[in-house]
């Protein structure tokens, strides 16, 4: 892909200083001293096992396969993850110049932004849309805290496709100082003891350069190479939810046969097993007649001992609600979003919805926006000068209500009429292009419009010349002398009055 406009031509990749290089032309020359804690985990040292080899991380509690199983089977985890993914994947975004619309380069940059936008709307040859690519990326990110996009380049070194890869198959490979050398992929299933490698062919384990992978992790840390999944912190809650759901379904399904013990007299062995199987197979189907026979009419009998349920089954409902809230809290999802609106006032629900967006949605948007600007745009538009003038951002500005829009328009109108802002300055704040003859300050009064210029005669000048300063000093001395003379005359007059009285 090559972007060419009338005023801008993006054809050559300009080598720039690498991030984190401290302005050094050769950043590798600045050797790091601190050893990386996870060097062995990142390098994925293989351990021989039954003709193959396996690797495992000591920090993870659950394997990637188990994390994915929890996402599929626990309805509350699935609802929390999907709620966040849907909001982020369908969030409005834009690619715009970050300079003033009045800049002469603005028109050319707009054309580049339009071409970038068209590429991101359908970023691969499979026909996947932006929403579909983001859904795949963010689902892996929230479940395994490892979302991966492959940046596929053409022969000319220009970005051609964005392809989502399964995050659990990508491993960063670093040296002892934590510097990423490459990314390796292992497509085989991850089980309880790590990745089972059944093949030694290099084609089955592709490697990627650092600029060919966009690795997204929400909870980056120094203890685990691929972040810390949220699900691992709610293992007990997930187990309790799965057990509670299973217990509830069994209880509801077995209501026709209440809990108890069936005592069969005169039947044992195979006949007893068949009777038990028949009772289990036909439970809930009371319209079917169950028949048991024996050659001895006096040798058969049945007695049902009913078992009572304990009060803990009743109190389990309250505990389940608390467990659900714990799961929602871990994902930053408010209960009101999940339909738990009982006894909640409308004002409280509105506040919770506003707060919910700042818990996990906003951080994901910030991380994703930084990744796209720092990695995808620079690979797509291979010209640093132009890349610095455009940016990808999510439209997170709050929509104004009709009343707010009217108040804002009234404020701008007041600024223009009182000479605080020009019409073009107001248009610039609104993101509009300038118009001719709207760069002068005007003041409206009694139906007339006066133009305000910066070089008017009545502008107050508070500068003082040296001559004026000398005149002011001499006049001040004269004033002080007169005041002293008046004090002397008053003193002499008081003395004369005292003599006359004596």
Q: What's the arrangement of strands in the largest beta sheet?
A: 7-6-13
- Secondary structural class: alpha+beta
- Overall mean confidence score, pLDDT: 72
**Count of DSSP strands:** 18
* Helical residues, percent: 40-55%
Distance between the termini: 115 Å
Question: What is the overall shape?
Answer: elongated
pLDDT under 50 segments (min length 5)? 9-17, 22-27, 41-57, 191-196, 456-462
What does the main sheet amount to? 3 strands, antiparallel
Radius of gyration (CA) equals 39 Å
Q: Helix count?
A: 13
Residue fraction in strands:
15-25%
- What is the number of independent domains? 3
Can you describe this structure?
With 502 residues, the protein is of the alpha+beta class. The protein folds into three domains: 3-61 and 92-226 and 362-394, no CATH class; 244-328, no CATH class; 402-452, no CATH class. The chain has 13 helices and 18 strands. Strand 10 and strand 11 (194-195) form a beta hairpin. The longest helix is centred in the last third of the chain and has 36 residues, at 466-501. Mean pLDDT is 72; it is low at 9-17, 22-27, 41-57, 191-196 and 456-462.
């Amino acid at each position: 892909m090559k972007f060419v406009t009338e005023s801008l031509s993006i054809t050559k990749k300009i080598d720039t200083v690498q991030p984190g290089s401290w302005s050094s032309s050769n950043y590798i020359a600045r050797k790091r001293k601190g050893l990386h804690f996870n060097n062995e985990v990142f390098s994925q040292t293989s351990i021989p096992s039954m003709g193959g080899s396996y690797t495992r991380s000591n920090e993870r509690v659950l394997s990637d396969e188990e994390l994915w199983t929890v996402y599929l089977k626990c309805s509350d985890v699935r609802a929390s993850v999907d709620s966040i993914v849907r909001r982020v994947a369908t969030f409005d975004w834009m690619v715009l110049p970050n300079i003033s619309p009045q800049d002469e380069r603005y028109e050319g940059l707009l054309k580049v932004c339009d071409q970038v936008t068209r590429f991101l709307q359908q970023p691969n040859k499979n026909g996947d849309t932006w929403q579909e690519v983001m859904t795949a990326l963010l689902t892996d990110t929230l479940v395994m805290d490892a979302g991966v996009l492959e940046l596929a380049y053409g022969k000319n070194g220009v970005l051609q496709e964005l392809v989502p890869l399964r995050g659990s198959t990508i491993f960063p490979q670093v040296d002892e100082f934590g510097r990423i050398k490459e990314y390796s992929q292992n497509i085989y299933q991850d089980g309880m003891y790590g990745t089972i490698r059944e093949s030694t062919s290099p084609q089955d384990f592709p490697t990627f350069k650092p600029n060919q992978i966009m690795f997204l992790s929400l909870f980056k840390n120094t203890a685990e190479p691929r972040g810390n999944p949220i699900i691992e912190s709610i293992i007990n809650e997930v187990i309790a939810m799965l057990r509670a759901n299973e217990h509830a379904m069994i209880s509801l399904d077995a209501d026709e046969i209440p809990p108890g013990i069936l005592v069969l007299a005169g039947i044992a062995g195979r006949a007893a097993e068949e009777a038990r199987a028949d009772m289990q197979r036909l439970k809930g189907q009371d319209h079917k007649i169950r028949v048991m026979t024996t050659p001895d009419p006096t040798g058969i009998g049945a007695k049902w001992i009913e078992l009572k349920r304990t009060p803990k089954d009743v109190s389990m409902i309250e505990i389940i609600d608390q467990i659900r809230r714990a799961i929602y809290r871990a994902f930053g999802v408010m209960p009101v979003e999940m339909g738990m609106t009982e006894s909640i006032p409308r004002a409280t629900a509105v506040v919770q919805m506003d707060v919910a967006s700042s818990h996990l949605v906003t951080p994901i948007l910030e991380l994703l926006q930084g990744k796209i600007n720092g990695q995808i745009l620079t690979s797509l538009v291979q010209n640093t000068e132009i890349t610095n003038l455009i940016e990808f951002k999510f439209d997170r500005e709050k929509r104004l209500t009709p009343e707010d829009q009217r108040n804002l328009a009234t404020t701008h109108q007041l600024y223009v009429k009182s000479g605080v802002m020009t019409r073009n300055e107001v248009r610039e704040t609104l993101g509009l292009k300038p118009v001719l003859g709207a760069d002068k300050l005007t003041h409206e009064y009694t139906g007339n419009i006066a133009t305000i210029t910066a070089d008017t005669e009545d502008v107050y000048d508070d500068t003082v010349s040296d001559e004026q300063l000398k005149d002011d000093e001499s006049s001040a001395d004269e004033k002080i002398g007169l005041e002293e003379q008046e004090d002397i005359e008053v003193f002499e007059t008081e003395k004369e009055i005292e003599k006359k009285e004596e």
